[in-house]
Amino acid sequence: MTQWVLHVDMDQFLVAVELLRRPELVGLPVVVGGRGDPTERAVVSTASYEAREHGVRSGLALRLAKRRCPDAVFLPVDRPVYEEASARVMETLRSHPGAVVEVLGWDEAFVGVETDDPLATAREVQAAVLAATSLHCSVGIGDTLVRAKIATEFGKPRGTFQLTRDNWMEVMGERPTTALWGVGAKIAARLEAIGIRTVADLAAADEDALVAAFGPSSGAHLGRLGRGGGRSRPDDTPWVARAHGRETTFQADLTTADDVRAALAELAERVVDDVRAEDRPVQRVHLKARFAPFFTFTKVRKLAEPTYDVEVIARTAYELFVALDDDRPVRLLGVRGEMVPPPGGY
DNA sequence: TCTGGGGTCCTAGGACCC
DNA sequence: TCTGGGGTCCTAGGACCC
């Protein structure tokens, strides 16, 4: 028996969950995002495959989604329903004999299994998830987490794909570095500046050069990533949150200090609700502010004493806001509370 | 054309200490 | 007059992911 990693990724998850309770929308372009009103400031969380054909993607402003696909049905984000569906998916994965499940988000997880027929196991997992939830997923099969994760893209929708040491270079070698998990536009540009454009270039790159350009941790990580390497066993230790935050985009920009203070107080209150539930007080306060149209700043301050006190957190956030010394209208505010680590650390 | 809301991790560099 | 070498703690800021 061999150790394999499966990466299970739900297909158009938010839309799929909505279609279960609105079957009449199956086959139509459906967009889930914000409060479901395309005239508001909000973005697409998930678009159905039919909507994607019109160029609607996650992260696109709802207003633009409406323009690109005027016939789309817009639905509001309904977190509790997705959390519930997600929990059933994860429970199904954990019920597979011998499975070690590492959750990555609402709609995806790594599953470590021992099997001589990983494709058959992947099919079993897909069938079990479908039976338990009526939802379809794609499964990437790999000999490392990175390979399994990237394989999934080639299996979508409802399919599987296998990526291992043997076919990694053949499949990935000529692709740009942005095809890798964790390499975005900025990192890709910095790599290109030192002559690395493709995955094959990165795999062959000199480790010292990568470390010189990206530091000891990131440099070594990038080299491994190019070769598809890294961890090969999922880790199922329960997740312990480092921080909780809340942020809001205002439909009408804020212009007065009182409005800002009131908004920060409300956000701080919601943050404290979350950190109380963790039973670990806030030790550092992060303030995020976006001024119209797109300048975003974050500031951090460590508190003298860890606290659950909403007043202290809200006042600290406001002090950080004032320190920005920017009098443009405010489009977004966020407060994040970084908690004291649990006994024994993370 | 307009950019959510929830997160994590890393690096650089200053302040300070021995 | 010039200035080691190791370490910790802190903030700022960048980048990425779902």
From TrEMBL:
Cross-referenced PROSITE patterns: UMUC
Annotated ranges, domain UmuC: 5-184
Function: Poorly processive, error-prone DNA polymerase involved in untargeted mutagenesis. Copies undamaged DNA at stalled replication forks, which arise in vivo from mismatched or misaligned primer ends. These misaligned primers can be extended by PolIV. Exhibits no 3'-5' exonuclease (proofreading) activity. May be involved in translesional synthesis, in conjunction with the beta clamp from PolIII.
Known catalytic reactions: DNA(n) + a 2'-deoxyribonucleoside 5'-triphosphate = DNA(n+1) + diphosphate
Protein's UniProt name: DNA polymerase IV
Family: Belongs to the DNA polymerase type-Y family.
Pfam families: IMS, IMS_C
InterPro entries the UniProt entry points to: DNA/RNA_pol_sf, DNA_pol_Y-fam_lit_finger_sf, DNA_pol_Y-fam_little_finger, DNA_polymerase-Y, DNApol_IV, Rev_trsase/Diguanyl_cyclase, UmuC
PANTHER family associated with the record: DNA POLYMERASE KAPPA (PTHR11076:SF33), DNA REPAIR POLYMERASE UMUC / TRANSFERASE FAMILY MEMBER (PTHR11076)
